[in-house]
Design goal:
Blueprint: H1 3-15, H2 24-42, H3 45-61, H4 68-89, H5 92-108, H6 116-134, H7 137-152, H8 161-179, H9 182-197, H10 206-224, H11 227-242, H12 251-280, H13 299-314, H14 320-342, H15 351-363
Length: 374
Amino acid sequence: MDSTDDVSRKRRRLDCCPPGHADRYTAIYGLANALYNRFTEESKSDDLSEAITMYRAALELQPAERVEHDRSCSLNEIAVCLSYRYDKNGVSDDLEEAITLGRTALELCPQEHSDRGLYLYNLACRLRKRFAEKAAICDLEEAIELHRAALELRPSGHADRPSSLNQLAYCLSNRHHKNGVADDLEEAITLGCAALELHPPGHSDRGVCIYNLACDLGKRFSKQAAVCDLEDAIELHRAALELRPLGHSDRPSSLHELAFCLSNRHVNRRVADDLEEATKFGCTAPEFCPPGHPDHDTADLDEAIVLDREALQLLIPGDPRYDISRQRLIAHLQLKIGLQRAIPSPNTVSHSEAIAYAYWHAMQPRCAIIPLYG
């Protein structure tokens, strides 16, 4: 049945159940479900707000003989709607109430009930959202604890295990960024790899799963300088970008991160080659910067500039990412200009000058590239 027809039908049923009618609770609850279902299809804010109103009204009329889990289910439904409204409008009160109701729903849900994993997962996701807004580490710690508990209730083969793996990995990555504990990043990567295996091509969440894992590998490269991590990150960011075509809300983020990784690879190749030349003390002026030298090969940097420009075009002034995108594009352009100016002509330098330049070049701090996300 068409969602609009279903809403209309449920409204007519409610009209036939005035206050005091024995079926009024069922009618209100049915209309709330119909409105919520239409919201999930059409994303109309009015449907979501009315669904919240109807769910609240149904909860007040819920018969006293209903078991605790029925009340737990009703509280969870209101919390889900409030969380969606927070995502759309950013009103903190909605998130706060969603967390409060989610806690109560979890307390009322029996340990052995099949919905307990869902309630654990939902509450954990909301606490992570509040951490993103207020940066209270206690919220993140609790989110990780709840995600671990939910994961235990979602063993191999469970339909919701991929989501739990991905969200737990994301929280651990956030905690690594906050506290710098290497074990959190390692576990995030392990869980991210496991989550990706369970998100096959065509899965709606495959893009975000690929993106998150790529970002974590990029973070590990920045700590350990293992080139294989950077290469894997670039490959995964390219795959994520393919799943985020023009018009996709997350395309700017993918463009940013791929550009960042490419610029890192460019700089990393320069550093490795320069240090080798400087420490060997065996370079000659004519051989100082031959064709094929990483300073001549600016393909990664050129691509990073193209990606940054596209990202900037997709954003508008006032978006926090706009200023970051602009600064990073400037940084990449400065790096490119610096390369064009800094390389001495092999015909005009002596052997000793070439050695001195190689050592200086290796020791210079590289252009500050600003990451979009920690």
